[in-house]
Amino acid sequence: MLALLSVAVTQQQTVQAQENWRDSLTAINKQIAQSSWSTDLHLRKANANLQLKQWQYAVDEYGLVLQKEPHNPAALFYRAYAYTHLRRFDLARNDLSDLLIVLPHHYEARLSMAVVQQQLGRKQEALDHLNQAIQQCPDSAVAYAARANLERDMKQDEAALYDWQKAEELSPRDPTYVVSHVDLLLVLERRKEARRVLDAAVNRGIPRGMLLEWYAKCKR
Predict the structure, then answer these.
(1) Which among 209, 204, 164 has a CA at the least distance from the CA of 188?
(2) Directed axis angle between helix 39-51 and helix 55-68, to 10°?
């Protein structure tokens, strides 16, 4: 009953948020109609489209901004984001490439480019971008985790193990990194090492109950 109530409350909050964004979009459209060109208003409209998951409308709106300002960083980045939801990864790559020319140290764009390249089947290019992201932000657990996932996909297991360990060091209370690390160790039949990783995670404060499934797998 409590679980059902929680789901109902979450759904109600989601519906309310969607209604708020629709109201915002209506207000922004009125402002646009009553004023001369405003990049800020069109970016706000496009953001509302994103929040409402109106991906094509967002693409069109960011396109208007880019007609006026071809190198606008926000329009390039978020149009690429909308393109990924439309599964137009080639167009997302183009926008991110243009953005990285303007802002070569844009960390989020670099990570996004890696994801897009991977979706396009260009794994080495994706790895190159992740390497650069880690050079730019060596304290990012997310970047190490992203590289570990890609390395596992590329059958570079030892490199992936190293990156999972780095992700854990940088975000020691995140159980998802522990589970991914242990999962790979189990695939490699390194059960004792997997058990040590689990024990270390518990010692760092991750509740043992969250890892019981993985402890059980270590015994098989």
Answers:
(1) 164
(2) 160
Q: How far is CA 119 from the centre of its chain?
A: 13
Residues 84-128 pLDDT 10s: 999 999 999 999 999 999 999 999 999 999 999 999 999 999 999
Query: Tokens for 104?
Result: 């070569």
Distance CA 25, CA 119 (A): 32
- 112 backbone dihedrals φ, ψ, rounded to 5°: -65, -40
SS (H, E, C) the chain: CHHHHHHHHHHHHHHHHHHHHHHHHHHHHHHHHCCCCCHHHHHHHHHHHHHCCCHHHHHHHHHHHHHHCCCCHHHHHHHHHHHHHCCCHHHHHHHHHHHHHHCCCCHHHHHHHHHHHHHCCCHHHHHHHHHHHHHHCCCCHHHHHHHHHHHHHCCCHHHHHHHHHHHHHHCCCCHHHHHHHHHHHHHCCCHHHHHHHHHHHHHCCCCHHHHHHHHHHHHC
d(C-alpha 1, C-alpha 6), whole Å? 9
pTM score, whole prediction? 0.84
Q: Calculate the CA 58 to chain-centre distance.
A: 19
